[in-house]
Design brief:
single chain; 458 residues; mainly alpha; globular
């Protein structure tokens, strides 16, 4: 590795680090500074922006935004809240399942902002240490991204894999990630079940509880969505959204079914590629929500789901373009340096995915930026599919919005960042969940069902 390569890599890392410090749009925008330095300062050939993935995110976020604007998301949260309040003793296990599957359905983990105050309230009123369900539930809301058929990370994995000869479809990705991630989350929930001191034995909590003003803050109000009126249009928007997801999955299955002449059903029927199908279906569903479910466009673009999605677009745009520029110019050198490690320990790419995610706070951006490099290094598609859960590592440094919001939502003060930054409430459940899910995903694709998942390689 030459001195110039090292300097340019430091520029890339510096841009990612500074962007993560500012957060939000800065992740993508400051990556543009790094890109400008590489192109104009060092004369590197510009890479290719990940336009296909960006278009899919825009379409999916537009659809989810109209779902929120129509009130459909409130109905989904109400259903989840009823289940949680019906079984409060099991909230440490149920809360992460709720946030996980909400993310799977909507394609973004930012839906946690609505349900997390409810999780905190139920735990506190049941005298359960809120840190136990809150820590793992916040992690679960992000873990669900690699299990959603409309999330950028999944769609990018399929698109990039297909372009590199690994003809995997969305259902096959979910066959690996969903069971692996659910098992990982349940292991994290089990480890969190007796985590920390019970509230009755926690001197810090008892001190807060003894103060009348703090006591009223903790117990005086109840966070709930059950008092919201759900209109028939809101319910209809949920059915439209779920119907759109089923149609997308149905088209994806067409890519898996082989017909007699050796072609897939999708090829036989001349069905467009999945990136096009997702965009068409999502935009159509968004239009139906606007026309028939009273989803006001201004309310949709002003909602948390649409705004967070657009931030993700900018982040992926800048980060992935910057990474593609650097690695694209030094692919031959990378192959020489890493070929030995990759051949002996191909699963080690999971460590790379995790470390990059710690820096850039976006699973979709990790996939778009690093997956082409992994294929260029000769790592097999089944290996990369198995370690896909490892693209979630940004819980490690607790600066992600959902984690910070969870700390603020916990009125008991038990969910914390920690004096030494890394000793926070999300570290233990995050590490357990990701490690278990990655190991199990690798075993599914490369041990238990190795022949099946290897068969997609052309």
């Amino acid at each position: 590795m030459s001195f110039v390569m090292i300097v340019e890599l430091l520029i890339v890392l510096a841009a990612l680090y500074v962007g993560s410090r500012y957060g939000s749009l800065a992740l993508g925008a400051i990556s543009g500074i790094g890109l400008a330095i590489l192109v104009f300062g060092f004369g590197l050939k510009p890479g290719t922006p990940p336009t296909d993935v960006i278009y899919i995110i825009i379409a999916a976020v537009t659809c989810a935004g109209t779902l929120q604007a129509s009130g459909g998301m409130d109905w989904m949260i109400q259903i989840a809240e009823k289940m949680l309040r019906k079984h409060p003793d099991h909230i440490t296990f149920l809360a992460p399942l709720v946030t996980f599957f909400l993310t799977v359905l909507v394609g973004t983990g930012h839906v946690v902002y609505t349900i997390m105050p409810i999780i905190c309230d139920i735990a506190l009123k049941k005298n359960i240490r809120p840190e136990r369900p809150c820590g793992v539930a916040s992690v679960a809301s992000q873990v669900g991204i690699t299990c959603s058929p409309i999330a950028a990370a999944v769609v990018a994995f399929v698109t990039i894999s297909n372009a590199n000869g690994y003809m995997v479809a969305i259902p096959q990705v979910l066959m690996v990630t969903i069971p692996a991630c659910v098992c990982g989350l349940m292991c994290a929930a089990a480890a969190s079940f007796k985590r920390g001191k019970d509230l009755d034995n926690d001197p810090e909590f008892l001190k807060r509880k003894a103060d009348p003003e703090t006591y009223n803050f903790m117990y005086g109000n109840s966070a709930t969505t059950l008092d919201k009126t759900i209109t028939k249009e809101a319910k209809a928007s949920v059915f439209i959204f779920l119907g759109a997801l089923l149609i997308i999955v149905g088209f994806a299955f067409c890519q898996m079914i082989n017909v007699s002449d050796g072609r897939t059903l999708a090829e036989y029927l001349a069905i467009p590629k999945m990136n096009i199908i997702i965009q068409i279906i999502m935009l159509t569903a968004a239009a139906c929500n606007i026309m028939f479910c009273k989803a006001k466009p201004k309310k949709a673009v002003g909602g948390a789901v649409w705004q967070s999605g657009m931030v993700a677009v900018v982040a992926i745009y800048g980060i992935a373009w910057l990474a593609d520029t650097y690695f694209g110019n030094y692919m031959d050198e990378m192959k020489v340096m890493l070929s030995g490690i990759v051949q002996s320990y191909p699963w080690a790419i999971a460590v790379v995915f995790f470390l990059v995610s710690v820096l850039i706070n976006s699973q979709g951006a990790v996939v778009v930026a690093m997956l082409p490099l992994a294929y260029e290094l000769g790592i097999a598609g089944p290996v990369l599919l198995g370690v896909l859960p490892s693209v979630y590592g940004y819980f490690f440094i607790p600066n992600y919005p959902s984690d910070i919001a969870t700390v603020n939502f916990d009125r008991s003060g038990t969910t914390v960042i920690g004096k030494y930054l890394l000793n926070h409430s999300f570290m233990m459940p995050g590490l357990i969940s990701v490690i278990v899910a990655t190991v199990l995903g690798y075993l599914i694709t490369n041990v238990f069902f190795a022949g099946y998942f290897a068969s997609f390689i052309q």
